[in-house]
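Slide 14.
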Amino acid sequence: MIKENSHNDSDTFLAQWLEGELTDNELKKLVSQEDYLAFLKLRKGFEIREQLDASTDNSFIKIKEQITTRKQKVIPLYKNWFVGIAASIIVLFGLFMLLDDSEVIIETGFGENKTIALLDGSEVILNSKSKIVYDEDNWKNDRKLYLSGEAYFKVAKGETFVVNTDNGSVSVLGTQFNVNSTQGYFDVVCYEGKVGVKTLESDHILLPNNAVRSLGGDLVEEYNDKEKVPTWIQGESTFKSVPIYQVIKALENNYDVTFDTSGINNKEIFTGSFPHDSLNIALKTVFETLNIAYSEKEKRNIKLRYKE
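Slide 15: predicted structure.
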């Protein structure tokens, strides 16, 4: 999984990248996917460098003064003050201040599913507490998006379609597949066509009903999934031999609750499912099979412990 870096680290990597000391692929391994997309936007903005160099706007003068006084270790890497200004803007105001209106960000809330129609006719069904980011203006030439969370894709035939995540990437031409990418968990299932999956550890080609997943950055596991579509888009989450903490995270995302897991082993393995329309049934279905008692100790905060 890609490491999250501080602004100072990202600032250093940006400077090295702009000076040609890092390739695009090397930069991508050092920063988060969202930061990488923002850096690409920044490079695109350099096409108007002459206009910015000629600017006498007070905000740029103030930024230049701040660069002089900050004395950060990254400053000597810059060969001109414009690069310094660009990196300082990132540090002071955040990377996404640099994104233009063509950057589309779509998110879902607790218990919410959302269907998105892309410009090429492809369709994305976004699961709860998930997000996709893509460049609308460049979509025709470059069908790439970033996913955090879980989504089901129905991809229209055409040029390569790429789903990037912090855990790996998925590339296809035209097919249907599901991707679930959260912290410490990466799962891809192919339902139609052929899917290429790339992680930091290995590459895989999936045919219909083939699946691959990684838990906690450990060994990537291949398995088969007999479903015709992911069950979550039909109102039920299904799991096959996953740690219970992954199931608990799905419960939290669907029902807007939190769990106190200090009284259980949250790495215990679970196989089963829970519905999305009843918290009581979901709790009973998941925890009674594992002999785990559950009680609400505070509003929407559920304490778990083993039954005596």
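Speaker note: The CA atoms of residues 214 and 273 lie 20 Å apart.
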